[in-house]
Every structure is written in C-alpha cells, then in structure tokens.
Design goal:
The chain is mainly alpha-helical and 504 residues long. The chain is 83% helix and 0% strand.
Length: 504
C-alpha cells in the first residue's frame, strides 16, 4: 500500500468518527438554537445571537492563531519537551491576550450594548459572555493540543459531545426557570468551566502536562501571527452579518436570520469531518516528503463534494419547510435566506480543505490575504444590502463572500504551488451532477409540499442518483478503493457492484 493510500485510509477512519461526532455536534448546535428560539421570542433569540457573535469574535482574536499553530508544531515534534513547550507557549500567550480583551469588553459595554441590542437585559448578557472569553480560549488551546496528538476520541468527548450537550442542558434549564436571555450566557459560562477541566484531564493522559519543556515563542508566533488576522477575518465572515443586522435592523430580524444560518452550516459537517486530522497529516506529509499532499487533497475533496451534494440539494429544495420544521412558523421567512446561504457554504465542499492545505504548506500569509479580501467584500456588501433588504441582504453578502474566498484560495494554490483539487475525472462530476441531477431535482422539490417524510425520501433518492451517476460516468479512481474497503469493513459486506468500476 502506498504512503498516500495509507494516509487516505487513516484520514477516512478518523473522518468517520469525526463525521459521526460532527453530526452530533452540528445537531447539538442546532438543538441549542432551537431551544433558545422556542423559549424566547424572535427578538430575544436575536439578542442572544448578537451576543454569541461578539463572544466568538473576541475569542478568535484572543486565540491569536494558536489554535492552528499548536497542533501544527506538536505534530512535527518527537520530543515531549518540545510538544509540551508548544502547548504551553500557546496557552500562556493566548490567556494573557484574551484576558485583556475581556477587560476591554467590560469597559466598553456602556457604549457597545445600546448600539447593538434593544432590551435592558442585554447588559448582563453581554458582560457574562465577556468574562467567559479567557475560559473559552483556554479550552480551545487544550482541544488544539489534543488535535496535535492526533487523538480523535478525546476531541469528540470534550468538544463535540461534552461541552455542547452540557451547554444545551444548562441553557434549557436556565431559560425554563424564567431567567430570560441572561440564561443563555449562564449556560455557556458553566458549561465552559466543566469542559475546561475535562479537556485538560484528557490532555494530561496523552501528554503529561508537568515536566521539562522547551518554549517555541518566536517560531510559533511568526507562524501564528498572520493567522490572528486571517482567523479573525474568517470568523468575521460568519459573524459580521449578525452583528451588522443588530446594528442596522431590529433584533427580531436577527432572530429570523439566525434560524437560517445554523441550518445552512449543516453543509460543512462533511468538510469538518475530514478536517480534524487533515492539517497535521498534510503538514507531516509536506515535512517528510511522504507521499503527495496534492493527491490527498484531490481525493478528499471529491469525497467531500459527493457526500455534501445530496444534502445541499435537499436543503435548497425544501428550505421553507425545513426552517418551519425546526424553528416554527414565526421564522419561516428565513427559508429564502437558507437557500441563498446554502449556495455559499456548498462552495466550501467544492474546493475541500483548501485553507488547511495552504497552512500545511506554511503559506499562512496567503490565508491572511484571502480572508482579508473576502471580509472586505462581505463588509461592503453588508453595508450596501442590509439597510434596504434586511436579513436577505445579509444572506446574499455572506454567500458572495464565501464564493470569493474559495476562488482566491484556489488561485493561490494553483498558481503558487501548482496544486488543485480538480482532476479530469472529478471535473466531470462537479459539472455534470449539478446539471443532470441538481436542476431537475430542485425543480421537483420546490413544487412538492410535505413534511419530514417527503424531505427524507427526497434526500435518499438524490443520494442514490448521485452514486449511480458517479459509477456510470466513470468518476471512480484507484484511491476510491480505500472508501469502498472502509464501507465493507464497517458493514461486514462486500460491494462488488461498485468495485468492478474502480480502475486497478
């Protein structure tokens, strides 16, 4: 078995667990939003959404790019002193920075809160989220260190299951007893304390936290500093629309928009499943010249696209029904925004883990440039489109920005490193599937009413059509045998019908 095939097999095994965990995690995030929206009014849900957006942006700045720097360097080191030093470097620097940010938010609250929120309760909501920032950053550094050890199970236990489900239970409890919008912030805070303790206990099992260490301040800072701005820009792409909606429009519109947004992000579950081990693995391949980064990138991108395509069609075809099903009729206006947002998120699947590939190659400056370009476009479009069009303007701005981001990153990979996710075989699929299956299915779906059973049948039918089309179009490649073998191992059954179409 070749080095590339070995890495694909390992990546797929990890992806299966992370995919299951990501489904749980993504669904838990959706449940959290549904709980908040059902127990609060659209206005209250909008207030909480703005507060979460500010909290997320502050934590991203506080992490200072070390959530990527820590796993990258830990994966490259063999000596425990260096690994421990990489974790400690990230922890000390980010906790100091995030604490300063928390103090700044508290000091600025009398100015910020009246401009972004509509209710008196929002001040307490904002302050609780502000003091939670250092805790969340410390938790993310622990999760990043676990990622650097290439341990999927512990990541799942801490972040995808433990933290998220604890958050849901606590938020539901606080809201149920009538605390109001402040209950959401309290749920986040208490869940963070519990998750932080669990994360460091598990990390200590992988790498004893006490012992000799070798700090790597200079090299990790040089690598991570460009990511400070680039990760902030990336986060702004997901949060600016919410914050600017809160500034320009009523909180109720923010609530409707944030019914569509978490549903649209379901399209990134497949992408995230392959992403957990992709960065440290691609980084190792590049440093050891072991196999081909490009080939791993090509194959995983095709798998991501094919897995996400049926979900994309289903979400777009039944956007109104899906929003109503999860959030209720009060939010059904967000169906149109869901369809628009889904287009932007699906472009991520079409180009795969492009930013992680640049990061593994050490081109963090190019990630910075890409994110700055996308954010600049996003900001301008939000300013232009939100005042007249409200949440639909925000959806159009976000979708356009994601398309632009992926085009720019593709251009850098193509012309700087001669790396592309496309092969002659995959291009046929990327062009043919939307034309031959996508358009007819969308036309049928948009004119067919019904609830969950109809949506489920539609999704299964599109999945079957996608698989059949790939086989008949000759879209299978030798490396796809890894995927077939994985399915056979998990099901205990052979798949001879597909195997016969895989080139030897």
């Amino acid at each position: 078995m070749s080095a590339t095939t070995d890495d694909l097999s390992k990546l797929l095994s990890s992806a299966s667990l992370v995919f299951a965990a990501s489904l749980v995690g993504s669904f838990s995030t959706l449940i959290e939003r549904v709980v908040i929206s059902r127990l609060l009014s659209p206005q209250g849900y909008g207030e909480v959404s703005v507060a979460i957006a500010v909290f997320s942006l502050a934590a991203t700045v506080g992490a200072a790019g070390f959530t990527q720097g820590v796993p990258r360097y830990m994966a490259r080191f063999d000596d425990e002193r260096d690994e421990r030093g990489a974790w400690l470097t990230g922890l000390v620097l980010t906790v100091a920075l995030s604490s300063a940010i928390a103090v700044a938010l508290v000091a600025a609250s009398p100015i910020v809160v009246p401009r972004l929120f509509d209710t008196d309760e929002a001040m307490a909501l904002f302050l609780i989220f502000a003091v939670s920032v250092p805790l969340f950053v410390s938790f993310r550094i622990a999760a990043s260190a676990i990622r650097g050890q290439e341990n999927t199970l512990y990541k799942v236990l801490t972040r995808d299951i433990g933290y998220r489900f604890a958050r849901i239970l606590l938020i539901a409890a606080f809201l149920w007893v009538g605390v109001g919008i402040v209950g959401a912030a309290l749920g986040y805070l208490v869940a963070l304390v519990v998750a932080l303790v669990v994360a460091y206990v598990l990390l200590n099992r992988l790498l004893p936290l006490r012992g000799e260490y070798e700090l790597h301040v200079t090299e990790m800072t040089v690598f991570s500093l460009p990511l400070v701005v680039s990760t902030v820009m990336s986060n702004l792409l997901t949060r600016t629309d919410t914050v600017m909606l809160g500034y320009f429009r009523a909180s109720s519109e923010v609530g409707i928009y944030n019914a569509a947004y978490p549903l649209a992000t379901s399209l990134t579950v497949v992408l995230g499943a392959f992403g957990y081990l992709y960065l440290p693995m691609a980084s190792r391949i590049d440093s050891e010249d072991e196999g081909s980064v490009e080939r791993v990138y090509e194959i995983t991108t095709k798998w991501i696209f094919l897995l996400a395509f049926p979900l994309f069609l289903t979400v777009v075809a039944f956007s109104d029904q899906i929003v109503s099903l999860f959030f209720g009729d009060e939010y059904v206006a967000g169906g149109a925004a869901l369809a628009v947002l889904s287009v932007g998120f699906f472009t991520n699947a079409a180009v795969g883990r492009n930013r992680e590939t640049l990061s593994a190659l050490g081109a963090t400056q190019l990630i910075l440039v890409s994110n700055v370009v996308a954010f600049a476009l996003n900001f301008v479009l939000n300013v232009v489109l939100i005042p007249p069009f409200g949440f639909m303007g925000a959806a159009a701005a976000s979708a356009s920005s994601y398309v632009a981001l992926n085009v720019v990153v593709y251009a850098f990979l193509r012309y700087r490193f001669d790396i592309t996710p496309f092969t002659r075989s995959s291009v046929r699929l990327y062009v043919g599937l939307p034309l031959l299956i996508g358009v007819p299915c969308l036309l049928v779906g948009r004119h067919v009413g019904g609830g969950l059973p109809v949506i489920a049948v539609f999704g299964v039918a599109v999945t079957v059509l996608t698989i059949v089309s790939v086989v008949l179009a000759g879209g299978l490649e030798p490396e796809d045998a890894v995927l077939v073998e994985f399915v056979e191992r998990k099901t205990g059954r052979r798949v001879p019908l597909i195997r016969r179409y895989i080139p030897g």
